[in-house]
Amino acid sequence: MTHFSPAELAAQLKTGLLSFPVTAFHADLGFHEAAYREHLSWLSQYDVAGLFAAGGTGEGFSLTPTEIETVVRTAVSEVNGRVPVIAPATGGTATAVADARTAEEAGADGILLFPPYLTEAGQRGLIEHVSAVCRSTSLGVTVYSRANAILTDVTVAELADRNPNFVCLKDGVGNVEQMTRTYARVGERLTYVGGLPTAETFALPLLQLGYSTYSSAIFNFVPEFALGFYADVLAQDRTAVYRKLNEFVLPYLDIRDRTKGYAVSIVKAGVNAIGRNAGPVRPPLQDLTEDEVRQLTELIGKVK
Q: Does the active-site annotation cover 260?
């Protein structure tokens, strides 16, 4: 199978909105392949620049390595080249390297490297971690800077020098000074993606920092609204952006912020609310309450 080259992937990711399709589960929490395929088929009809399979919103942290491979292969098969599929690399270095190799064999178009599981690490250790994953694959690698793997501008610059297939930095922190330092030091060598939860909230200000795109969770269930919002951000139409923030995004955040982990749970609830089958979330996440689902459904109805 022909993959995007790292340079091609970097260029592609800049061209539009990105998203993490939820991974559908049966009531017993097993992978629901048919529902996942149906969801992917629907989403990939829209004009998005890439889909991240088995990622954060896709509950990648709750999947076994075998399940991740199955989900990635399913995504590659169903999307069938219409949209690039980026697969996760998770856990410690050995596990992440194995994930990257498996993803390439499965036909993925790129890798999203998540922070290492549990342990804290210094910048030198993170450099070796990221470099090991980059060396293990010919695919373009996006590094997710957040949690226990927050990269400084100096680290990002060294990684970019050492690893030609490190092509994209996804920020999940929102530290404006650090983001400015990174862009000033590294510039157009990388593609920059906004990765904060409900990224629409930060999209307009981050545009000024060189982050021309972001991953949209709400694209899972209100794709037209998400794409329209993104267009307003690119046009720097502040009136439209803030109207839509007040209309949908901020009330959505009010529900999301009630319980830890709802940033994922509310996306699955949204998919279910529009009549598509995403199923429940896996523990330790918890599903929204019936009242919260009702509130979310009413909110979606205002922008559908």
A: no
Whole-angstrom distance, CA of residue 277 vs CA of residue 173: 31
Alpha-carbon distance of 98 to 197, in angstroms, equals 27
Burial (CB < 10 A; 0-12, 13-18, 19+), residue 15, is middle
CB-CB contact of 133 with 100 (8 Å): yes
Residue 159's H or E segment, with its range, is helix 153-162
Catalytic residue among 36, 170, 211, 252: 170
| 14, 46, 144, 183: the active-site residue | 144
**Is 239 annotated in some ligand binding site?**
no
**Per-residue model confidence (pLDDT) at position 304:** 83
Predicted TM-score of the model (pTM): 0.96
User: Who's near 176: CB < 8 A, 6+ residues apart?
Assistant: 205, 209
Residues in the chain, total: 304
Placement of tokens 């991740």 in the chain: 68
Q: Which mean pLDDT values do the consecutive 10-residue runs of the chain (304 residues) have?
A: 86 96 98 98 96 94 95 97 95 96 97 93 98 98 97 98 98 96 97 95 94 96 98 98 98 98 98 98 98 98 92
- What single DSSP character describes residue 28? T
Q: Is 302 a catalytic residue?
A: no
